[in-house]
Design a protein that fits this description.
Distance between the termini: 24 Å
Order of helices and strands: HHH
Strand content: under 5%
Shape: extended
Number of strands: 0
Oligomer: single chain
Number of domains: 1
Radius of gyration: 16 Å
Largest sheet: none
Helix content: 40-55%
Length: 73
């Protein structure tokens, strides 16, 4: 997966999370001139998916369940 996100940090601890991701080479911080414009079709598709799950939230997994599935043995 190669996804570019624009992040506005709201909580101080989020800086540490991002730093950890960089250390693990799981994320890279890009300069403003390295960012990519999101095509309109992707924005539209994302909104369509969000609208679907807003109406069908029973299909979503709870965070506790996701964490159980992500635990490593």
């Amino acid at each position: 997966m190669n996804e570019t996100l624009h992040i506005k940090i709201i909580k101080d601890y989020a800086v540490n999370v991002i730093s950890d991701l960089k250390t693990l080479e799981a994320a890279e911080v890009l300069a403003d001139d390295e960012t990519v414009d999101i095509p309109q079709w992707q924005i539209d598709k994302g909104r369509k998916i969000k609208d679907y799950y807003d109406k069908n939230s029973n299909e979503l997994l709870r965070w506790a369940e996701i964490r159980k599935q992500l635990k490593f043995s």
